[in-house]
Amino acid sequence: MSANKLIQSSLILIIGACFSLTALADAKPTAREEMNQEFKNRGIGGKRYEIDRSPIGSFDYYMERLDATKKKLNITKEQQALWSEYEKSLVALFTDIKRAKARLGGATAVQQIGQVLGVTQNRYAGMEQIHDSAKKLYESMSDSQKKTADEILISTVPSFD
Predict the structure, then answer these.
(1) Which of 159, 125, 152 is nearest to 138 (CA)?
(2) Which of 27, 94, 135, 136 is the most exposed place for a label (fewest CB within 10 A)?
């Protein structure tokens, strides 16, 4: 009798495991996972890596990614000033995000929420600067450069997740 119960329990576990694996296989990847896979497949500057636009990444890694993007876009001498403005706006936002992480906390709940509001306002202003400089740079690009920019330029913008 106990052997039958053991066999039944084993069968139930095996069937449950099969259903669990089927459910995992049917699970759809998140948008972030799809984007990561797309960038792994494409790569920037010939490199294949998972996109990590996280502001907590290292500044050196971030600058290497900007340099790779600039090279991939084949920025001309005429476009250099526009690229510099774009890069400056990105670095300003990246720096502000890093600074904000260090200064949050230690106050009352309402003060902490006020700090988050201030950070959010700074990020919004920073994103407006990035948008404006990207628009000017993009308008100066050839069709070929625009096609490349459409694929990779967003990867240079720090995310807030």
Answers:
(1) 152
(2) 27
Give the distance, in angstroms, between the CA of residue 28 and the centroid of all CA atoms in the same chain: 19
- pLDDT, tens digit, for every residue of 14-43? 665 555 444 444 566 655 455 455 545 544
Going from N- to C-terminal start, the domains of the chain cover: 43-156
Planar angle of CA 44, 32, 129, nearest 5 degrees: 65
Q: Pick from 100, 94, 130, 92: which is nearest to 117 by CA?
A: 100
pTM of the model: 0.60
Q: Which residue has the tokens 């069968």?
A: 11
Q: Both tokens of residue 36?
A: 């990561």
